[in-house]
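User: Okay, second chain of the day. Same drill as before: sequence in, structure tokens out.
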Amino acid sequence: MKKEFLIIICILICFNLSIAAAQNPPHRICCRAVYRAGAALGAAASLSAFFDNQDTTILANLDSAAFWIEASNAFCQSTPPVWANWEDLAQSLDYIAYHLKEYDSERELEKARSEAAFKLKKYYFDFGKILLYRNYVGTLTYPSTCSEKYFKLGFALKYAHISFGYAVSDTSDASKRATAHDEGIEYLERALRILNELPSAVPVWGKCVELWHPSLIKADIEDMLSKEYDYSYLKNTTEQLYEKANDAFDGVPSLDIGRCPGTDRVLTEKGHRLIKSAKQE
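Assistant: Same drill. Structure tokens below.
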């Protein structure tokens, strides 16, 4: 009898979770918010790794990442919410920013940049891993999710773009330029792996946006990785691919790619505030 009672309770909990999800669909900005959070972190990571005079831009990207992480939590599915610990994640970014602003010597600043690059590249995995913890059909599972792939794709493309940007700079450090190029290629390879994995990712709501369509960005990445292109071409093309993926969350009718699933309704005062700010990002 006790066992049957527990089974009934479990069924009711699962049923209620499904109903809660049905009553709280994600806002359509969800996909782009997760993608942009990854992109801002990727930009900050690459800038920290290679540039000596872009601290203001690094700080701006850390602020942007914190914003998009909060927006993802507000607008994505609620069972459970994306980045439920978003305030802790934002605090970890504030800690990095603090050390880039408060230093007593150039040597301390160089150390802060190096540590920022190390931590932010680690967040590619750490912040992405959090997106695997989804309550899917009432059961806690750890599948590959659309959100995880969006986050990592944004990070990878933006890291590659910024790295190629350093590779074409007029700095006299040829070794560092070569390293920037090699890391740009590494993150392009990551982006391609993500696109290949995305079709099998678990959609917590609706379905994944078909960013893996060959004619969107995949074929171009394959081409860039198969040939020797000059650094300027890699920089400019990677930026274009990042923007094409970003725009694809609104759908690409010519490729039969649907927009990010969800609703256009904004139900809370906080939601309206975030939507207004998102339009300015």
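The radius of gyration is 20 Å.

User: Thanks, on to the next one.
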